[in-house]
Amino acid sequence: MMRRRALLKLLGATATISVAWPLRPNAQQRSQPALVGIFTATDLTGKSFVPAETDAFLQAMRDLGYVEGQTISYAYAARNQAKPPPASSRPAMALELVRQKPEVIATSGGLPAVRALMEATSTIPIVMVTTSDALETGLVTSLAHPGGHVTGLSIPNKELGAKRLGLLHETLPLVRRIAVFWDPTTPQSERDAQDAAGRALGLELRFVEISGPDAFESAFEAAAKWGAEALLSGAGLVTPNRQSFVALAARYRLPAIYHQSIIVDAGGMMSYGLNFPDLWRRAATYVDKILKGAKPGDLPIEQPTKFELVINLKTAKALEVFLPKSVLARADGVIE
Question: Is 17 domain-assigned?
Fold first, then answer.
């Protein structure tokens, strides 16, 4: 009788655990494709506004053995948009994606995107792809054991911002006034770190807020009135609106360093930062583990390992910037 009671007690505990976090069947056991959410919008052609990144994710999922329409399908936060949705639409987009009931959501968009998703759901696992300093910003209490329903990759943006400033100073050693474009969601700690790095280099920085693409023109006007001689931008909203931003930088003749090489591909002068397609490929491994039953809170949050310096020589020449050999020698990519 005692053994029977012990067995029933054990079975009851097991049942409780399975309700708290049900095991997910693997791809071979499913009767229907797993639904994975991608917290991004697609343009009128059905592509993400930064296709290289989501394409890398989708290819990584195929490499892991998933077949779209058979073992996996994808839900997007917003489809067939004429232009990138404004930042103010994030909460509504998060709710719309959650309503589609994906089993896991992968998100770029940084800290605001993750917080919007966390407001929309407390149960669907969230895989961060491009979120800044997850520990410092309070998204998790531990990188090794994040707990809860959020895991993925955490970006050391404070260090990257200081590095970009140093590269810009090395490229333009006579320049002293640098405009730093930032969006309102940027953590204050990142701005403080850049300010400290600027003072250490003897530079004068002016922080100029850009809340959306409609604010680009006025931001450049403000920088020009102040007398900016160069520009640093790590604002995420520049990426999907890169063509218009780069055109303004050319018109105002401001040499600039950016956070993503895709902006340099569009005509920006130089960038230093992460290989974003690689981050999306790594995010696919998290999604795969969660679909196979892993708890997101048990998956350690990782940091990026690939950084790249990319230079657009054509843009530099148009701005009459002659890049030092010390900078060119470190470049991972040069566009001529």
Answer: no
Q: How far apart are CA 274 and CA 210, in angstroms?
A: 22
Is the domain of 181 the same as that of 86? no
Based on C-alpha coordinates, what's the Rg of the chain? 22
> For residue 85, what are the contacts with CB-CB under 8 A and spacing of at least 6?
41, 78, 93
Among 9-23, 32-46, 89-103, whose mean pLDDT is lowest?
9-23
Question: pLDDT tens digits for 185-194?
Answer: 777 888 888 9
pTM of the model: 0.83
SS3 call for 261? helix
119 and 169 belong to one structural domain: no
Q: What is the pLDDT of residues 265-278, one digit of tens each?
A: 999 999 999 988 99
Task: With respect to residue 5, please indicate whether it lies within any of the assigned structural domains.
Answer: no
Residue span of the structural domain in which 230 resides:
157-275+307-335
Secondary structure (DSSP) of 36-50: EEEEEEEETTS-BSS
Written as six digits, the tokens of 264 are 């340099």
Token pair 């940027």 is found at 186
Domains of the chain: total: 2
Q: Are 93 and 180 members of one domain?
A: no
